[in-house]
Amino acid sequence: MSGQIRYEWLRLTTIRSTWIMLAMPIVLAAAVGWLFGHFSSALDRSGQGLTIGFELLINASPVMTLAAVFLSVVFAQAIGQEYRHGLIRVTLTQFPHRNRVLVVKIAMMSILVLVMAVIVVAVLWGAAIVGIAPTGGSIRYIAATDNPLIVRALLYVLVFTAIAFAITMITRIIQLGIILPIVLALLVEPIIRVIVLIATGGSNGGRPDIASEPLILRLLPFSSGQSALATDGDPWQGLLIFAIWGAVLLIPGWILFVRRDA
Amino acid sequence: MTIEAVGLSKRYGSVLAVDALTFTVPRGVVTGFLGPNGAGKSTAMRLMLDLDRGEGRTAFDGKPLKEHRHASRVVGAHLDAKVFHPQRTARNHLRMVGSDAGVSNARVDEVLSMVGLDSVARKRPKTFSLGMSQRLALAGAVLADPMCLMLDEPANGLDPQSIQWLREFLRNYASQGRSVLVSSHLLSEMQLMADRIVVIAKGKLITDGTVEDFVSMSTRNDVLVRCDRPEALVELLRAEGVTAVAEGPDGLAVIGESTDRVGEAAFRAGVVVRELVSRRASLEEAFLELTSDAQGFAAGGQL
């Protein structure tokens, strides 16, 4: 198995696009964090410095979702590039146990995504502090609510990227693995939400509140995932639904990987 | 290490691409894998490596590939020339491919030098020609010094010097007690390279044996005799149940007989023999004859 870990590591690190995709969410987190801190301080009317809750950095900025998009490219490439360039035959000739191949790929990519998500959160937080500090402001961190929020944010990124990986496994088309989650999250689900809310005569006018929504909206994957970044409602339930969607896609992807011709 | 393929079968919808194929690739010799386009050679190779899902089993030294601790030390495969990421340098590609066997960077450089790619080791292969891609794929196959090699059309795109180098390399590799299975459409090249051949057509085995055995199956092996009265000799030969066909004004092609027998017959017929020569079909002639009714995707139209 060590040979396969080395193989995956070299596969990952010897391509320039990997480093670009890993750098992008960090740069983005730094920029958004600093801008968030800097411009939030403009709201300060007291002149004594504004205190902003850490949770706003996570759920009011798009950083975690954008980080998930960039990292989903890396995760999807773990399998998509192998099919695209025919390398899957080289891989499976060296490592004929397909289940092990997937276990190592998913484990390594999951660790990478989680490490990157931790870095993104840290950079976002640090940049926001740097941005707000000159005005005497600060970022308030409440461990009781913000620790679980960070855990949910990391898992949200992981599930998002795993969905991209699963779609790529099923379709063997890397572009679909990358684009489909974005289209679903930003286009399809909002349209469904609007249609359902119009049909049922209700609207909460903002972030999805899973508990008060019709069942069909509570089961939408990416809306559920987004609700995991909130601190109100039942964010854990949203994360659970999102994770179930991830598993639902991973299982057929896994079966197809093992059973289909390479 | 011997490779034994038993009962390989693969169906694509209603098409049976490989049909109960059984053959052996012995150690110490180069085994050619021949067949018309669409005969199922590449599919059979993928089945042997468990890359395609089908029926049958393949044993490498008595065990499936999965049961060997390091598959890359058992078999090195080259199934397609353009199997690399276009942005990963040739050297990094080989470092990655050598991961299972723990191949050192020095070995990577050695193999790159061996296939003549040392000057482009740190270049991205997106600009490589077909010949260079073939060399890189070959380098990947031999990198871990495996006991078996399986190469699918490795000579495609190579210049004559490279083909000669490949021939010598594979013969030398096999002579070290290893198994080499190589498919090719270059039949004249295969005649020089292979000691044994496995011929398939429409997914079925035509022959599995030596090149000599295969060529001897051809009806184009004959004896040419030129004499002063060929009609007299034909009459005698036909009376003895021997097939003889006129060839030129004074020649006869006698099928299925030795020069000794034809010479004796000429003596008995009282003819003056001017030329008596045994003619052997080439591998190409034998191949075309014996697979003529089994062309998968043959070109036969007139321009």
UniProtKB/TrEMBL annotation, chain A:
Q: Does the keyword Nucleotidyltransferase apply?
A: no
Q: Recite the UniProt keywords alphabetically.
A: Membrane, Transmembrane, Transmembrane helix
Where do transmembrane segments lie in this chain?
A: 20-37, 57-80, 101-133, 153-171, 178-199, 239-258
- Family matches, as PANTHER family: INTEGRAL MEMBRANE PROTEIN-RELATED (PTHR37305), MEMBRANE PROTEIN (PTHR37305:SF1)
Return the protein name: Unannotated protein
TrEMBL record, chain B:
Q: Which residues form the signal peptide?
A: none
- Write one Pfam family the protein is assigned to: ABC_tran
Sequence similarity? Belongs to the ABC transporter superfamily.
Q: Supply the name of the protein.
A: Unannotated protein
Coiled coil where? none
Q: Which GO terms describe its molecular function?
A: ATP binding; ATP hydrolysis activity
The protein's matches in InterPro entries, at most eight in alphabetical order, are given as: AAA+_ATPase, ABC_transporter-like_ATP-bd, ABC_transporter-like_CS, P-loop_NTPase
Gene source species: freshwater metagenome
Residues forming the ABC transporter domain are 3-227
Family annotation (Gene3D superfamilies):
P-loop containing nucleotide triphosphate hydrolases (3.40.50.300)
Alphabetical keyword list: ATP-binding, Nucleotide-binding, Transport
